[in-house]
């Protein structure tokens, strides 16, 4: 292997994936699905794969994808979270969660406007946990 190939390989391995928030937009209806990831390219590939194979967690998005086809949808990056020069190794999960919450609040991709599930309150979340962990009555 030449020195140039070794350098290219090393550079590729050291490359950090871009992280951020993206949307899948239905060009027919205008509905959107908003998500975030620590690796935007991998997340977009995963969502596309799930949609193409009929296994996306959002049943409404899957239904529209199946009905209209992949050419009726675009994947768009809404926000990229860039680490600063001095915090390359810092965990960016909190920054990413904040960015996703921001875009969900701005775009409100729920109901007729989108494919995301509306947020639930902490009280409802706890009630669901209790329901799912309670022993069933026979």
Explain how this protein is built.
This protein is α+β, with helices and mostly antiparallel strands and about 140 residues long. It has a single domain (about 5-85, about 90-135), classed as 3-Layer(aba) Sandwich (GIY-YIG endonuclease). The mean pLDDT is about 90. The longest helix is centred in the C-terminal third of the chain and has 15 residues, at about 95-105. It is built from 5 helices and 3 strands; from the N terminus they run αββααβαα. Strands 2-1-3 form a 3-stranded antiparallel β-sheet. The chain is globular, with a radius of gyration of 19 Å.
Poorly predicted segments: none
- Separate helix tally: 5
- Count of distinct structural domains: 1
Structural class: alpha+beta
Approximately how much helix is present in the residues? 40-55%
Q: Give the CA-based shape.
A: globular
Strand arrangement in the largest pleated sheet:
2-1-3
What is the H/E order? HEEHHEHH
Distance between the termini: 68 Å
Indicate the radius of gyration in whole angstroms.
19 Å
Query: Given this structure, which CATH class is correct?
Result: Alpha Beta
Strand residue percentage = 15-25%
CATH topology: GIY-YIG endonuclease
Q: Which second-level CATH architecture applies?
A: 3-Layer(aba) Sandwich
- Return the average pLDDT rounded to an integer: 88
Number of strands: 3
Largest sheet: 3 strands, antiparallel
């Amino acid at each position: 292997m030449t020195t140039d190939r070794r350098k290219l390989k090393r550079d590729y391995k050291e490359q950090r994936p871009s992280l951020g928030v993206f949307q899948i937009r239905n060009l027919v209806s205008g509905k959107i699905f908003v998500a975030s990831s620590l690796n935007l390219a991998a997340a977009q590939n995963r969502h596309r794969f799930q949609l193409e194979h009929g296994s996306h967690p959002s049943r409404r998005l899957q239904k529209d994808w199946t009905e209209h086809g992949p050419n009726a949808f675009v994947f768009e990056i809404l926000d990229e979270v860039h680490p600063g020069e001095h915090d390359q190794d810092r965990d960016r999960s909190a920054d990413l969660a904040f960015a996703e919450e921001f875009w969900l609040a701005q775009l409100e991709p729920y109901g007729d406007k989108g494919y995301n599930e509306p947020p639930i309150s902490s009280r409802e979340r706890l009630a669901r946990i209790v329901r799912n962990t309670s022993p069933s009555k026979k």
